[in-house]
Structure formats: C-alpha cells, structure tokens
Known about the structure:
By secondary structure, the chain is of the alpha+beta class. The chain has one domain (about 25-195). The protein contains four helices and five strands; from the N terminus they run αααβββββα. It has a five-stranded mixed β-sheet. A hairpin with a 4-residue loop joins strand 4 (about 180-185) and strand 5.
Amino acid sequence: MIAIIAVLVALLLPALGRARRASGQVSCLSNLRQWAMAAHQYAMENPSGFLPRRGQGVSPTLRVDRPADWFNALPPMMRAATYNELNTAGRIPRPGDASSVWLCPEAADWAGAFYWSYGMNMGLSVETASQNGGQPDRIMGVGDTSTMVVFADAPGNYCSVFPSRFPGGYNPVARHNKAVNIAFLDGHAAAVGGDYIGVGTGLIEHPDVRWHPPGSTWNSAQ
Length: 222
C-alpha cells in the first residue's frame, strides 16, 4: 500500500508543479496587462501624450524618488501607492509576500535594497534620446501600440529591461518555460520565447515585438 501511494505521489507531483507554474504565468500576464493599461491611461491623460520615464537604464536601479519614473507615475492610475511611498514605509513587495500587481509569482528574490519583478522597456522615454530632445516618448509617436513593448519580466535589481548579448544583467527574464511575459502598449500581454527576442544574445527586433520606437537611435551598446 505504501509503495502504491509513493508511486501515485511521484506521478502527481510533476503535474501539480506544472499546474502551479501555469497558474503563476496567468497571474503574471494579468499583472503586466494592468501595468500596460496604466501606461496607456497615463499617456492619454497627459496633455502632450507623454509616456512615463523608464527609470535608470543599463545600471542597477539605485534611485526611486523621481515622480516621472514609471514605478511612481503609474500606481496612481491604479489607485495604489507609488514605489517611493512603499520604500519610505518599508513595504517594497518582494517574492514570498502576498499576491501583488508588483510581483510575478515565479520570480526569484534579489538581495538588494530595491526589487522589481517587472521592468519598463529600456528603449522608451530615454532621457538622452536626441530625437525627443530629452523628452519622454509620446504615445502617438511609437507606432503600432499592439507591437510596442512597454513592460517585461525583470531580474529584480533593474526597473527597466532590454535584450542584451550578455547573460544576466538587465536582460528580460525567461522565467516561464523559457518564455518572457511581455506587455504591449495597447494593453495586451503575451508569453514570448527568450530566444526570439535575443535574451542573452542581443536584441532581435521583430515586426510583432518592437523595442525601439520609430526613428530611435538609442542603443544600449550591449
């Protein structure tokens, strides 16, 4: 009898693990859709149509107090506390905490002061982008919003992400069976293979998954 139970448990555990991961991916996609819709709303309510700032780029994020950075600009769209407010209160969401729009259920923790499960597309609203004169990107200037990446799974210590030829770093994280969950500026989200977009090998841009707005000359050089 014990042997039969052991066999049944061995058969069931993989299935339960797959079910848990599938549920986590669905929750993650729901979170990303909420962030994307908040970004769309933010731009539509802005008289100039500006998107929020991406936050710090190719370096781990160390500053969290700028109002225009996405993690402070977008929570009010969802009637939620900003990241800076959460940080001041010592309540930054981290893996293992209760379910939150900030957290991918499949994300691993990062032993740093700040934490992000999701990062904004590093190619948007770049402060040094000459084509914008230093201004954020406008929603009407990014082309088809259904193909414009706005958020993706992040590694924890970066608030913005971009496919890089170097493993780790600010690469989006393919934590869902080798796929990255990505949110697009029209508000939809989808799982996209990490290899398809160049995670660990360098950006591969596609007509259906774009990281640069039209005319952008910014390149992470990575």
